[in-house]
Amino acid sequence: MQDAEQQIDRLREQIRQHDYRYYVLNDPALSDYEYDQLMNRLIQLEKAHPELMTPDSPTQRVGGEPTSQFPAITHDVPMLSLGNTYSQEELNDFEKRLQNLLPDETVEYVAELKFDGIAVSLVYRDGLLVQAATRGDGIQGDDITANIRTIRSIPLSLMRQEHPGRGKSAQGGHPADIEVRGEVFMPRKAFAKLNQKQLANDEKPFANARNATAGSLKLQDPKMTAARPLHFFAYFIRVLGTGNNAGGIRPAHLENLHLLRELGLPVSRHVALCRSIWDVVDFCNTWEEKRDELPFEIDGVVIKVNSLRQQEQLGSTAKSPRWAIAYKFKAKQATTLLRKIHLQVGRTGTVTPVAELEPVFLAGSTISRATLHNEDEIRRKDIREGDSVLIEKGGDVIPKVVKVIEEKRPPETRRFEMPVRCPVCSGPLVRAEGESAVRCENIACPAQVHRRIEHFAARGAMDIEGLGNALILQLVESRLIEDYADLYTLKKEDAAALERMGEKSAQNLIHAIQESKSRPLDRVVFAIGIRYVGSTVASILADHCGSMDALIGASRSELDAIDGVGPTISESIGHFFAQEHNIVVIDKLRAAGIRMSGERKAKKSGIFDGCSFVLTGTLDRMTRQAASELIESEGGKVTSSVSKNTSYVLVGQNPGSKYQKAQDLGVSLIDEDTFISMLEKSKKRPFPKDSQLAIEI
Ligand code: IVH
After folding, report:
1. Model confidence over 259-270: pLDDT tens digits?
2. I need a labelling partner for 377 at 20 to 30 A (CA). Which of 58, 369, 437, 568 fits?
3. Consecutive H or E run containing 254
4. Which CATH homologous superfamily contains domain 333-430?
């Protein structure tokens, strides 16, 4: 019993620690699989010992029954909104107002991102999350506690804190009862995936990530909310009740952001302390430009006076505080005329409809084209030539058409019909069952030939400098090349005879083409343009197969068994090599001297060169498999038994007999912390970031 309790405590702590590393520090230490294993063990133990269940157990994120209504909650301190500014002048005015209200004082500002999500209030009593509410009208919001509990970046219990000089405080180490405010949002990629799922299930997609967030928080069944990829950033903390400051709220806003993070809450790291409004303007300009690089949407910057004393002195109007203001970015949407729907043929034959627009200036650049994705999308939005459309610049560089402005539709427009013939080669267009894309199946279609060569020569592929779009078009149109392998037999005189070329440019081109022969196998595998084989998959394939011939000869099941290669990819590879002309082109490449096999990977080398390790016991922060991989990646090897030749024995919890043997033989014993610090000293991050899952904070 005692043992179960200890195990349960340990598992909960491990899971909490992982959530913290994953969501707050953005530095995961466990794989999803390992995490699930911990969770499953905990679920089993709690089932066997229901008396040991606590409300803040990580298994209790989804609990309770669906509600038909969310009870109302009155905010004891209203959730105000912010005044908006749109220009540098208005920011200057803000500063002037503050100078008038606080004569002879210097004011420091904190600039933060303005997350485009839904504001929520969280109440922690005795360190436990007891209530979560929406902003509502600022005075009264909805109780959405059950839904908020499903968001894994929001801790169900606060992390304990050491107060300097006081040791652990009387409240068990966390501040007194507190309210935390912040923004719930859905990262961009997760939103796109959710919308794909909605479409696949014949459900209406959400207009944007903010709507998806709002909808997710208002679902009546928390189990459904749990399946929504929501995230949270905290930006405000206050002590509840009497106003005594037992919790150690700090005198400046920036320090309180640190406090929030120390308590285990996710806080964005894109924050700046600004000593003047000029610094603020810089921050605003920087993020207005870089906003698309963030994994989530922002719609501006929030500027706050750093000193809490000054904040209090400034106070609020009925609607918004005087100590803070929002700087709103320029709109990323505009309306314009859709002149024509044009069909673009890609290198694998996929035909993509593109909108040709009346050029319009939008958030920093002139837009004259927008993607329309596919036939279904056009039909769903009923987009027609001649329509006025709302366009949006999203995370992608290519803008998209959000919707048609129906009131402005001129008479005599026609519904879009996908042509049955390729606009470039007049070959038949085919739409495979279950796919939304239409494809031109004529591999000799000049548009495809062009795109294939473009892909082949691109950076990341064969990287042929100076072989750009216009030149490829000339080469193809003049029939000097019919496929990318022909590049290697191109003669200087022929190239020089092209319009706008000349001797010197032709010389450079031929040189660049010849130089590309030294590209390694993985680049070649990527460059030949197999559908679904991007640069990462190409490298996996090159490593695994070692040569082009082995790749060509690999069976479907052999390919499927490779980590990182799924059935769609393996089918596409099979399809590619089953086409005779592809084999012919590859033979031409081979004859031209392109690399068709890989070099054996050099043995890894690093701080453990020549060292041998033995592992014993259970490690806390990683699996033994992960530790072994780290050792090998640093040039060491792992063996199973201790001898006098063993360099180190890595000792975890409950070590076995190897521990004793190592002591007897006088072999160095190291614990996990020492091991990790050895790796850290080597400047190698022991816990690689999982870029797909982790979100930047
Ligand atoms: S501070 C009184 N900080 O913007 C101060 N708000 O119009 C109130 N928001 O309702 C909020 N990011 O939903 C603050 N870093 C940030 C924010 C932020 C987004 C939202 C929040 C609020 C609205 C204010």
Report:
1. 999 999 999 999
2. 568
3. helix 253-262
4. Nucleic acid-binding proteins (2.40.50.140)
459 CB-contact burial (10 Å; exposed 0-12 / middle 13-18 / buried 19+) = exposed
Task: Output the CA torsion sign for 311, 314, 316, 321.
Answer: negative
**Residue to mutate (ligand 1; options 114, 257, 697; most atoms within 8 A of CB):** 114
Ligand 1 lined by 183 (C-beta under 6 Å)? yes
Pairing of strands 365-371, 350-362: antiparallel
**What is the residue extent of each domain of the chain?**
2-60, 110-277+301-306, 333-430, 446-518, 521-592, 612-696
Q: Do domains 333-430 and 521-592 have the same CATH topology?
A: no
Kindly state the tokens that stand for 627: 């530790």
Ligand 1 proximity of 191 Cβ (cutoff 6 Å): no
Nearest to 209 by CA among 294, 135, 268, 134: 294
Could you tell me the CA-to-CA distances from 371 to 115, 236, 438 in Å, in that order? Answer: 26, 40, 15
Q: Which helix H or strand E contains 638, and what residues bound it?
A: strand 637-638
CA 114 / ligand 1 centre spacing (Å): 6
The tens digit of pLDDT for each residue in 447-501 reads 999 999 999 999 889 999 999 989 999 999 898 999 999 999 999 999 999 988 8
| pLDDT value, residue 161 | 65
CA–CA separation, 429 vs 422, rounded Å?
6
What is the per-residue DSSP string for 288-333? HHHGGGSSS-EEEEEEEESBHHHHHHH-B-SSSBTTEEEEEPPPSE
635 within ligand 1 shell (Cβ under 6 A) = no
* pLDDT at site 165: 40
Q: Does the beta carbon of 75 sit less than 6 angstroms from any atom of ligand 1?
A: no
Q: How far apart are CA 484 and CA 488, in angstroms?
A: 8
For the chain, residues with pLDDT lower than 50 are: 164-171, 600, 684-697
Q: Find out whether the beta carbon of 271 lies less than 6 Å from any atom of ligand 1.
A: no
- φ/ψ of 149, rounded to 5, equals -60, -20
Closest CA to 381 of 399, 398, 406, 403: 403
pTM of the model: 0.58
Please provide the CATH number assigned to the domain covering 110-277+301-306: 3.30.470.30
- Each residue's pLDDT tens digit, 596-618: 998 745 567 788 888 889 888 88
Distance 117 CA to ligand 1 centre (A): 9
Question: Contact 60/53 with Cβ under 8 angstroms?
Answer: yes
Asked about 114 being catalytic, the answer comes back as: yes
| Ligand 1 neighbourhood includes 80 CB (under 6 angstroms) | yes
Mutate to test the pocket of ligand 1, among 183, 280, 304, 308 (most ligand atoms within 8 A of CB): 183
User: Locate tokens 């790749």: which residue?
Assistant: 551
Q: Among 3.40.190.100, 1.20.1260.10, 1.10.150.20, 3.40.30.10, what is the CATH number of 521-592?
A: 1.10.150.20
The CATH class, in words, for 612-696 is alpha beta
% helix, strand, coil for the chain, step of 5: 40, 20, 40
Task: Calculate helix-pair angle for 580-592, 567-578, nearest 10 degrees.
Answer: 80
Report which protein residue has its CA nearest ligand 1's atom 23. 81
Between the alpha carbon of residue 522 and those of residues 51, 102, 527, 542, the distances in Å are: 57, 64, 9, 5
Protein residue with its CA nearest to atom 13 in ligand 1:
119
CA distance 657 to 669: 13
